[in-house]
């Protein structure tokens, strides 16, 4: 009897790939924030020139710059009836991106993202679970949060349902995702209080959260069973279930929820005294005369090594920067390429750059900031503010400065003064993220704020308002009017008011 051997023919194999099953999958689940970028399209419009029109008038009419208006005739002057081509940028929606978020504070809006495969139109059920210890709920129990102002414990969303109505240019990126926005807070005052108590009692002052994801709706179109779905999460310890559908934000990382601390600012010049220990954010609330409360902003809180008062060295010529700094930590500034920052092994920071000192007529300054032995809190100031508070407003923006951090109470008192006057103030800020404050030697740890001058009458009102909120040491330029509450700060202060020496009035 002949023996038949079966061997594989490699050519057959290559031309006929094995069938791949459509493996339904829940790949990832995590918390995120939404970021968006406006998208523009360019259109070119023909405009027929009317009598009396110039290129700049036409540019004005279409709200474009003159270079976006192109003539079509070769004559010396623009002619009546001449067609000009106007290039217009039109907004055509936004591009959306979700960035993973590992931390948030109570009351914040966050997104939950569930990334799936082959689960189009299926409903995803999500629980936010309390991990590690009892804090916002019992350990492993689901949290009640808000979705569209409704309380929810079991959160539901269809895969691919996100931004259907919206003008989002990259909708396809999310067709396999279930995306929900939730507010991390229960609805009733009693429940909110329970959350706050839970955080207060927790050793870490944090709640570690994770997600439980299920995809087995009864009306499922494909009639699948959940065990056919590949969940790429993990199984909880001592869990009877065999399904690995618990998800940490990313491997080894819980989603952390903390409490934000609130500093209240009162119209009478006082602020509330708040212990910022263990906080990650600070919220600012303005209390107006009519007892109305206005949420102004929430800022990141940083605990930094204290900086000692800087020592400056002004010269006409460029300095030679001494050796010994950590080359990897050298910073060149975005807003001023001549400026560099050097860090030394003992924690000393030196900043050097072009800086004209009108009192000494020098062009370069080097400031050495030594590290102190204490810790200081600073907050990241909002990049600008423009908030209506009744008939008045709180409004400021920055000049070209890297000093966008400030002491937490300094910001509160600055906001109080802004509310008092209602003017739009330009600020040179207070300090940088590391507590240094080049070119100033005295703004260290964000303890003073610079502002550009207004006209003399408005300026005096603003100085009074800063004084009322406890800035007791204000410097004016030697060429300026002798404003009350100020002392002479030399020519250096001819272009800005310096407000320091804060001694807040506590409620
Ligand atoms: Zn200053």
From TrEMBL:
Gene3D superfamilies: LysM domain. Coiled coil: none annotated. Residues 484-507 are annotated as: Disordered. Residues 46-87 form the LysM domain. It holds the Pfam family LysM. This is LysM domain-containing protein. It comes from Flavivirga aquatica.
